[in-house]
Amino acid sequence: MTLTVLVPSSLVREAEDKREATRKLGYVARAATVFRADRLVVFPDRDGERRFGGEFVETVLRYAATPPHLRKDLWGRRDELEYVGVLPPLRVPSTTGSESDDSGSLTQGIVTEVGPDGRVRVNCELQHPVSLHVPPSMEVKEGARVAIRISSREPVRARIVDEPLAGFDVSRTDLEEALGRADAGVRIATSRFGEALTTTRLPELASRIEREGATVVFGSPGRGLPAILDITVEDAVEPVDGPGFDLWLNTIPRQGSETVRTEEAMFASLASLTLTE
């Protein structure tokens, strides 16, 4: 199952300062991690942005998704990352297999340079960056995370392998493009105006998501998806032109607060939608 989560660039519009904005993004990253999202996509909502916009949101989320042992070399010092010390740890295992030098160790690296002849320069947990061949089945670019199989550390023998990575990828793209992906699966808009998720509806929906995967889209504080998309409530629960959702879903039908924060909505929604039989 492929799970993609979309959040708007106005995600931290109500944050009073950079520290609070960073902490909020940390909980968004935690939700993506806990429920094993494959992708976390930031889509534009420029009308809803205030002090911190899409570039800030993407940068902090990308930093949070970077394995801790790679953060210093990859990111250095940036203004957007002033308060990353408040980010909660994601605790995604970046290394599997043996903790020693055995041939089975698998770790993550970041591509820092794409060179000729199918070689790239990679930062990983080895003492120095290494130049490695890219498998023919893969296409990588600068900044991409890659899986590295280490067979020896002294001397260094390592190779890039085409294997799934723990954690999630972060990108910034248009909503329509994200919904139009071939692996989008069930495309769900979350909104308090949507169809209520009930115990009767959930089994069939969860089973479908497990088979097809899902793309789940969230709004921002005080600015839900109908406002972001500039559509009426009636349009929201019926098929409309523009972004193609399969359904509008209210995953917290008995909410006791007038608004639910995005990170709260992520935990509540994904907990239900990722249930298995």
Q: How do the strands and helices of this protein lay out in sequence?
A:
Blueprint: E1 3-8, H1 18-34, E2 39-43, H2 54-65, H3 68-75, E3 105-114, E4 119-123, E5 130-133, E6 145-153, E7 156-161, E8 169-172, H4 175-179, E9 186-196, H5 202-212, E10 214-217, H6 225-229, H7 233-236, E11 247-250, H8 262-273
Helix pairs in contact: 1-2, 1-8
Folded structure, characterized:
The chain is α/β, with parallel strands linked by helices and 277 residues long. It folds into two domains: 3-89 and 167-273, Alpha/beta knot; 105-161, OB fold (Dihydrolipoamide Acetyltransferase, E2P), CATH 2.40.50.140. Helices cover 27% and strands 25% of the residues. It has eight helices and eleven strands. The strands form two sheets. Strands 8-2-1-10-9-11 form a six-stranded parallel beta sheet. A five-stranded antiparallel beta sheet has the order 5-4-3-6-7. β9, α5 (202-212) and β10 (214-217) form a beta-alpha-beta unit. The longest helix has 17 residues, at 18-34. Mean pLDDT is 89; it is low at 97-102.
